[in-house]
Amino acid sequence: MYASKLLLTVFALGALAGGVRADESKAEGVRELAVDLSENVKAVLQKREQLGIRVGHFTGSGIDHAEAGGMLTSAVVLELGLLVNVKAKLELKADYYLVDDPKAAGVKVIKLVAVIKDLAAGSTVKGFPEFVGFVRKADDFKRLIGATGVDKPDGDGEGKPNEESRRRAFQTVPTKPGVPPKVTAFVKGSVVRAAEGSNYDVQILCGATAKGPFAPLTATLDDKQFPGLPFVEIPKGHYYQVRVKNNDACRLGIFLHLDGIDQFAFSEDKTDGRPKFKMWVVDAGKEITIEGYHKNLDPGEVFGFLTTEHGKGAASKFPTQSQGKVGTICLGLAREKQPGEKGSQETVPGDVIPFKQKVVEFKLGDINEFVTVRYSR
Question: What is the pLDDT of residue 188?
Answer without folding.
Answer: 92
